[in-house]
């Protein structure tokens, strides 16, 4: 009888332990990033390891086609979290520009902007270009066709009264733009990326460049029309031979999450992101740009309730 009681107790304890283990099951999150040689993938991998430990979730980092593809993956419920440009995020949410043909995409919210992707307008000073207004009639690369860069170029040129019909428009990648610039096949190119950018760093070793300013009145008008833009200053000396600071605009690499993620999970992720920014910065240089004020500025779509709860808690949102 005694032995039977012991066996019954052991079985009961095993059942309790099993139920407890089931209750502590980690949330699994699929994070869509970008190409496996790009910044999105590298940052996502570095940050994912730290956030996973601190927020009690497990991450499956996925290499993807970046912003537009990532939003489509969330809409298809193939991932729960992604890194995207905040301008492309805006287009998707409102069904404009890149998403005009596809229509508006819902089912996702903002979690936090994480670092700047700077609109850099590189020009050849020997072509007599000293301002964006001088691009009229010039050969200009505006990024890959249908890319976020192309829409940045279109919007900024229009602020100066210039349309794509007013330039010899080329659709080239950053590296192809730099090569064409080096070979005097184009006079200028748009590059939306973190500064310094590898393609431009390589270019200035053999070619003199200037980086064009976006004047304050034009920047203000652009931000009023497109609230995903923010002002950004590229420090003097960022590129060889560019010895003055450049005032331009930037969009933001932004973490978005599926609305299907619960409030507690997203709160914990947001809290872990900023409370462990030093560890993230040690793992990836872009982590140095993590800032709670920056995280909410220029975000034109609603925040997830979990992220909003954290930002209200620390006084960044009212």
TrEMBL record:
Q: Which branch of life, at top level?
A: Bacteria
Keyword terms: Receptor, Signal
What residue stretch is flagged as signal peptide?
Answer: 1-20
Entries under NCBIfam families matching the protein: TRAP_TAXI
Name-wise, this protein is: TRAP transporter TAXI family solute receptor
């Amino acid at each position: 009888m005694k032995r039977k009681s012991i066996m019954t107790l052991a079985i009961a304890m095993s059942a309790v332990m099993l139920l407890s283990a089931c209750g502590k099951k980690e949330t699994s999150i699929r994070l869509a990033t970008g190409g496996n040689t790009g910044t999105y993938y590298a940052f996502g991998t570095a940050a994912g390891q730290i956030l996973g430990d601190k927020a009690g979730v497990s991450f499956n980092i996925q290499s993807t086609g970046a912003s537009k593809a990532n939003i489509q993956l969330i809409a298809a419920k193939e991932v729960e979290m992604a890194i995207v440009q905040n301008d492309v995020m805006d287009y998707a949410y409102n069904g404009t520009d890149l998403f005009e043909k596809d229509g508006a995409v819902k089912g996702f919210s903002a979690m936090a902007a994480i670092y700047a992707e700077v609109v850099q307008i590189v020009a050849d000073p020997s072509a007599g270009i000293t301002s964006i207004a001088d691009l009229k009639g010039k050969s200009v690369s505006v990024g890959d066709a249908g890319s976020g860069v192309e829409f940045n170029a279109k919007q900024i040129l229009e602020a100066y009264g210039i349309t794509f019909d007013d330039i010899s428009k080329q659709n080239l990648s950053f590296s192809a733009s730099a090569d064409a610039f080096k070979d005097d096949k184009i006079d200028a190119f748009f590059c939306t990326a973190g500064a310094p950018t590898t393609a431009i760093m390589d270019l200035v070793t053999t070619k003199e460049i200037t980086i064009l300013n976006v004047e304050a009145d034009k920047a203000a008008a652009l931000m009023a029309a497109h609230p995903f833009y923010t002002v950004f200053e590229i420090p003097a000396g960022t590129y060889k031979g560019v010895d003055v600071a450049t005032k331009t605009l930037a969009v933001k690499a932004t973490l978005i999450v599926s609305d299907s993620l619960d409030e507690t999970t997203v709160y914990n992720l947001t809290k872990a992101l900023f409370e462990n920014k030093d560890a993230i910065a040690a793992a990836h240089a872009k982590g140095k740009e993590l800032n709670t004020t920056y995280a909410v500025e220029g975000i034109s779509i609603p925040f997830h309730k979990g992220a909003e709860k954290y930002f209200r808690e620390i006084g960044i949102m009212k």
